[in-house]
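Protein in question filed below.

…
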Amino acid sequence: MQGKAEIDQVLRQKCEANEIPGVVAMAATGSDVIYQGAFGKRDLGKDDAMTTDSVFWIASMTKAITTAAGMQLVEQGKLSLDEPIGRLLPDLANPQVLEGFDERGEPKLRPAKSPITLRQLMTHTAGFAYNMWNADCAQYLEKTGTPAITTCQNAALKTPIICEPGTRWEYGTNIDFVGKAVEAVSGKRLDVYLRDHIFAPLGMNDTAFKITDSMRQRLVGTHARGEDGSLAPIPFELEQEPEFHMGGGGLYGTAGDYIKFTQMILNQGRGNGNEVLKPETVALMSRNHIGDLTMVKMVSVAPMYTNDVDLYPDIVKKWGLSFMINTAKTPEGRSADSLAWAGLANTYFWIDPARNVSGVILMQLLPFADAKCLEAFAGFERGVYAGLDAGSGQKAA
């Protein structure tokens, strides 16, 4: 594609300047991969060069895949978007709202006034939070000894909600319950369901909760950015024999595999010769499902893991099933009403149906929303749109 040299230069320069350890980026239309590049190293403690088939922890990029699985079961009438999900998942039958803490530091809980629905789970409006962005949630976990979600222990899911269902957008453990709902009605563990109904049909052979021997040979190391900006490898790996598969963040995979998923969305549910979702389902997933609510700035209470997250602060963001939706064109050229999200170790994707283009950029370092990673992402995305505009003989608006 036109613009390839420009993208290569941006990403290579970031790696050579040691601003990021390594990166894989890929962009595609509905029919073709139009850019792919790999720069830097898989692990700063080793010699292996990054390759386009390198395997990353894609973290919350798992959410869109788990939600797509849930929507397959909505199509079949096995799940309902708006019935109380507690009928299916007993843990959600009587949600408790956390109203702060008493003078002894004990949590103050009260029953929720309304039930939780699958639609609320898919849009992060059910009331569940993450301890990285919600201080009350963090305090609750600490006070009660509840394990963090990344332990993949069932006990980690036994938390209160922090607001009435449907009253605000709060990023949290919601999609892990979507995974539980998929398991409950399909009779399959989530790893098996995703393999059979998403990965195999789309040819996503390098995406899984459990890292295979082949994947491990290409696995990218995780890095941490110190306060002085320096990068160092850190030991990090999700539990490989988990109590539950984390539908909200447990997958490992490659850029090439995730591009197949984004192309399926661009192609209204079809990929690799198979219909994974119906066109009307993809259209439904791509719409705003939070009404007048908006995605808010995510303020970090765990600086080691995440910075504050405020993507496109000047643009109102809505939420689909389960994608962030930008309501105006972004500075990089992404059309209004595009779909996007990200993963904690600085992995990002977007899907722009209006321009028939999607992109995936994968890095592996903490904290999330790292400024250098966001610069790499923006440079990549600008280059993709510049190439599209040049290719269609149009000047970029």
In short: The mean pLDDT is 96.
